[in-house]
Amino acid sequence: MQRYSAFTLFREGLRGHRGWRPAWRKAEPRPAYDAVIVGGGGHGLATAYYLARNHGITNVAVLERGWIGGGNTGRNTTVVRSNYFYHESVALYDLALRLYEGLSRELNFNVMLSQRGMLIAAHTPTQMEICARIANAMQLNGVDGDLMSAQEAIRRIPLLNQSPDARYRCMGGIWQGRAGVARHDAVAWGYARAASSLGVDIVENCTVTDLLIEGGRIKGVETSLGTIRADAVGLTAAGATPGLAALASVRLPIHTYALQAFVSEPVKPCLDTVLLYLGTGTYVSQSSKGELVFGGGLDRVPTHGQRGNLPAEETVISGLLEMFPAFAQLKLMRQWAGVVDVVPDSSPVIGPLGPEGLYLNCGWGTGGFKAIPAGGWLLAHLLARGEHHEISRPFDLKRFAEGRLIDEAAGSGIAH
Length: 416
Ligand SMILES: Cc1cc2nc3c(=O)[nH]c(=O)nc-3n(C[C@H](O)[C@H](O)[C@H](O)COP(=O)(O)OP(=O)(O)OC[C@H]3O[C@@H](n4cnc5c(N)ncnc54)[C@H](O)[C@@H]3O)c2cc1C
Fold this sequence. Notes:
Blueprint: H1 6-14, E1 35-38, H2 42-55, E2 60-63, E3 79-80, H3 87-101, H4 103-107, E4 118-122, H5 125-140, E5 146-149, H6 150-156, E6 172-176, E7 180-181, H7 184-197, E8 201-203, E9 208-214, E10 217-223, E11 226-229, E12 232-235, H8 241-246, E13 255-264, E14 274-277, E15 283-286, E16 292-295, H9 310-323, E17 332-342, E18 349-352, E19 358-362, H10 372-385, H11 398-402, H12 409-412
Helix pairs in contact: 2-7, 2-10, 3-10
Bound molecules: flavin-adenine dinucleotide.
Flavin-adenine dinucleotide binds near residues 77, 237, 240 and 368.
């Protein structure tokens, strides 16, 4: 792997940038692997990397039907945080945040992590009470979380709409200082580059069309590029996972919805935290280029379309203007949607699917970008050892049969 450094950049500058090599190998699929990962989003690529890095399993292919990171990983609003309520979730999301904190160095790829803090703003005494419970739960679970006052919120975000006729005045909320944003494409590319350098084959434009199951265990996959055999297969296909699971005769408790994101024209620095309004569900941050990156709640009509629609757009934009009336002057530059895989308890599914050797990592819904390092770490553990890591065990599919739901609707429903 060509190492990236200030020195390499300087040297390439002197020779007209002619020495850069492709960041990862474009591989043709081989007939068999030790492990196959279906889906080249962040979770699939991280799984491949940790299989090689943590378990020494390098005879691995990531099969992606389009281009890597072209699914939700490249479509999200880049927020990372671990401000969840239950200890199972905090263990999972804080593992991810801790891995994010060292990721640029680990992958030798700048994922542009910016821990600028996040405020979840409350507008009523009841919401403040819920925020206090979440902040207390976070502290008990050993992660940074504080209850912030209205005065402190306004000090940090002076443009906040606190006028007497504001519909949702900020009363304070939950603050997590280690939360922030990271560049989504860089996370996908960084994992792809590091996995490829360890020997993983990254195969784009390769759609998995069927699962080969013989005698109750997985034996490989059928793809648009032919049959590929493997005794261990991980499904990390987000909204497409229920369709793949159906090929193994398993019906997953997952619905797919469109979630939209928006980017304004760039402006000078005006917002240096991530902000979410509980009242409207709209959240916003400012990118390093100056654009306001924002989004809101789901459009609750099940779909596989990656387009979004005007009614959802209107709701999100009115929420933004409620927070910052001055932003009405900005031009909207881009809008898009991703298809997110939503589980009834708003927690992911990690674990065996049924046939031996076949494992799931899905159900991340509106908030799986922040979890990519942990999702990959835990699925790699399952694929390599055939058993759960302690952190993934509570997220097994069995929780629905056993009634052990991890209901994080408040922590993940709209906050991403
Ligand atoms: C608008 C929006 C905003 C969001 N904001 C945030 C946020 O701020 N913070 C946060 O934490 N999360 C956020 N999310 C959620 C987050 O993006 C996802 O949970 C996360 O990216 C899921 O990663 P993944 O690798 O599981 O899925 P994906 O990145 O979707 O990857 C799945 C891949 O599988 C491929 N695939 C599907 N079927 C097949 C097949 N049959 N064969 C081969 N390949 C296949 C797809 O092409 C796709 O590339 C947001 C999502 C959206 C849409």
